Amino acid sequence: MSKRRVDEDSDIDVSSTDESDVEVGATEEDMEEVINVDFDYFDLNPQVDFHATKTFLRQLFGDDALKFDISGLADLILTENARMINMPVEVVPPMYKMLFEEMERAEDAHEKYEFDYFLVISKIYKLVHANISTDEDEQKSKKKKVSTKDGKEEEFDYFHFEDMVLEKNARYHGQYEYTEKHQETDSRRVFTEYGIDPRLSVLLLTKDGLKKSVPEMEEQFPPF
């Protein structure tokens, strides 16, 4: 009797309501949300950026970091620009443009910033087939391939994508293995079929070569 009374008094179509909720939920999931972010750039401050700079240097020199006076290097470069960690590559071209603007102002003020060459120390990583075989091992890789002296090809990729442009315009570029290795490549495996073996990358550019790289970066890595 109570069951019948509920059915008669209710004007809600339960089935249609459930379907409508599902459709609304699916629509909301399909909607893309755009978040606008503004970046403010400031000179490095020795009073607050010392430890962050040391962290950057430890990551740059990897397992060989103990061979360097990291604290001394941090003190030395606190007044200079450095590539920020975990920042999108699209912010790099404006940073290089600002660097040249600062240098031009310094030259106009007859300060000692008339550099002919620029040394960029960065990192790349060698792609190493994992010890655990997968079905994807046979797929062709689109990574950078370098031929060694014995004719074997080694595959590399970049931590910082702007290095692809800098490398193309560099007077000299090379990659070097770290002396100390505390981690197996498989422990750094971020791809399904590859482990990674970090290497130190060194690029020597002339002033003209670095200037040429900036518009090429802007074209290759536009902000939108």
TrEMBL record:
Residue spans of biased composition, Acidic residues class: 8-26
Pfam families (alphabetical): BCCIP
Residue ranges of the region described as Disordered: 1-26
Domain of life per record: Eukaryota
A single GO cellular-component term on record: nucleus
Family, as annotated: Belongs to the BCP1 family.
Protein name: Protein BCP1
